[in-house]
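Q: I have 283 residues here and want to know how they pack in 3D. Can you give me a structure?
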Amino acid sequence: MNTLKKLSCLLTVMFMFSVFLSCSDNDDSMEQQITPSEVLSSTPWETTAAKDKNGNQVALTDASVAGFVGFAYFKTDGTFAIYNLSDVLRSRGTWTVDPQGKTRTITSLNPDGTSVFTRTVDILVLNANEFTYRIHTNPNDPSVYYDIIHTKTAHAEPANGQLTLASTPWETTGAKDKNGSPVALTDASVAGFVGYSYFKANGTFTIYGLNDVLRSQGNWSISPDGTKRTITALDANGNVLFTRVVDILTLNSSEFTYRIIPDAGNPSVYYDIIHSKVNHQEP
């Protein structure tokens, strides 16, 4: 009888141990399961190499691949931002990876949410350390392609406000003088700075009056420390009309305020131009 009891206890212990091992294996399996989308969004990526259709190395400065080079941030909310290797914002928008991890699609967006382009590429490698895709640069000749190789990086996304400025249209909603007193937007001192602004991820901008008439266009940038915004207005032929550098006072998801000093020789006279996030489509 004692022998049977001992055998029964031994079998019970062995069964429980096997169940424990089975659960542990399942837990490990579940922990190891990660979707292709989760892999892509798990780290920043840096373009570190490119190859042509023959497997030959292509310089990252080569015109054939330069437009695909930079630091890429694919975020878990389905948005992305790509900067060049000098940390200048190049494009922003939305992204997806198919469930099998075979293709990645990005849609680059303007500040007003309209699409600039949609690009789908074949994924060749996607793991914790490497992301490589194949880009066909000639839609009429699929035999021409380049493999763009990215490596996991610890490079932090620039935090100087470029992405914030490019993520929405801005409407001038207020102005103040040096004493903090409100100034009417029709006042001659500030009227030239009033309108709807669209700072695009490719470094270009357009500004329209509140009547939707184009007022200026050209190139923009933000200083690395996020304290100054520069615009260079261009005419239709690309000639420089003026360059204006202003101090950024506030730049967040709902407000963009800068300080303009009309006369550099008299910095005690200035105006703060206040912009609010707006859902206004570019004319």
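Q: Anything worth noting?
A: The helical segments are 2-32, 36-40, 162-166. The first strand starts at residue 45 and ends at 52.
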